[in-house]
Amino acid sequence: MLAERTALFKSSGTAAARAAAEAAAGSGKEIIDLTAGEIWSDLAPTIRVGALNAIRRGINRYTDTIGMIELREALAQKISGHTGQVWRADEVAVTCGAKQALFNAAMVLLNPGDEVIIPAPYWTTFPAQVLIAGGKPVHVETRANGYVPRVEDIAAAITDRTRAVVVNTPNNPTGAVYGSETLVGIGKLAIERDLWIIFDECYGDFIHVDDAHCPIVSILPEARSRTLIVNSFSKSLALTGWRIGYLAGPKEVISAVKALQSHTTSNPNVIAQHAALAHLLNSDGSYERHLRSHLAGARQTGLSALSTLTRIPVPKATGGFYFYLDVSGLLRLRFGNDEPMTADDIVHVLLTRAGVAAVSGTTFGDPAGLRLSYGVPPKKLEIGLTRLVEVLNAWE
Ligand code: PLP
């Protein structure tokens, strides 16, 4: 009945984890849901005013397929400030979230059978999109190296069919931030072996240690002609539902993306575009500071709760808003009558015994991991982690 292509993907595991939490809550249990890939927060005032003004002005029509020129110019300016290089509007496409930016990139760069190196654990959509585009995801393990890929492991995974490498820092799900040595190493490899770099920095605003996040193109300008920068307002401005993100890269790629997007979604929502533009033009950075300090507080609360775990190392959580637990020490141990074998089983035990919803590492290609989001209200986080620690420490 359906196309063969549908066998290549299933609904995202994070969405499934959220659905399981909702189903458990529906059955009357009080569930603390730590699955969300988004931050609990009010709208930024600049976004609210920008959107309301656009509605008051009666804005209702299509814009340029890849976004209003004023917005692309403002984004080019932002990227220029961020990278220390000059970027122009024709090197930027506005998309319906970073997800569409990445999908566009896969569709315009990959030929059938082309391989894309994706460090694991990985955000589940990266390999799914590569498969949909006819490519082949190739994974490189990072767990033994603090969830940062080793350049030599990436080099060893390159074949004649390798077309691109995904660099997602700060990383979802692990929260790892790649240092400049790793970035330069990957960049040089990409130049040597003629690869594209898909640089996803959606969590770039959330770094919780001194080890600052740097865009790969600033530390290795020679890599710019083969790098696509992917970013979004979803995380940095807590705007997941507004679906607004962007892709920046060589203008030939951007014009191919424009042609593709003209046959898929057309322009991203016009009100969201106006709101984003108003924010870029008028923000004094206070909303971003507020989000960062909310997350820094939540991270501290979370880390002190998790420091009482007995069999699981406390995560570093250097970037983003996730705690990623290495639960390998619990696998095969008993919990009451259950004998968990995978992170999926642990997630199930946590949901049923602690009333806490987490995302299993299997969603991210890692059978020994567990992702907890701390972008939730502080009280909820505290209760959730206290319950979680109690159950995880009760493993025999
Ligand atoms: N890239 C990464 C690493 C993400 O974690 C996400 C969302 O979870 C996205 C991209 C997509 O974000 P958006 O909401 O902008 O589509």
UniProtKB/TrEMBL annotation:
One of its GO terms (molecular function) is transaminase activity. It comes from the Bacteria. Gene3D superfamilies: Aspartate Aminotransferase, domain 1 (3.90.1150.10), Type I PLP-dependent aspartate aminotransferase-like (Major domain) (3.40.640.10). It catalyses: L-aspartate + 2-oxoglutarate = oxaloacetate + L-glutamate. The keyword Transmembrane does not apply. The keyword Transferase applies. InterPro entries: Aminotransferase_I/II_large (IPR004839), AspAT/PAT-like (IPR050596), NHTrfase_class1_PyrdxlP-BS (IPR004838), PyrdxlP-dep_Trfase (IPR015424), PyrdxlP-dep_Trfase_major (IPR015421), PyrdxlP-dep_Trfase_small (IPR015422). Its EC number is 2.6.1.-. Its cofactor is pyridoxal 5'-phosphate. Keywords: Aminotransferase, Plasmid, Pyridoxal phosphate, Transferase. Residues 30-388 form the Aminotransferase class I/classII large domain. PANTHER family: ASPARTATE AMINOTRANSFERASE. Belongs to the class-I pyridoxal-phosphate-dependent aminotransferase family. This is Aminotransferase. It comes from Sinorhizobium chiapasense.
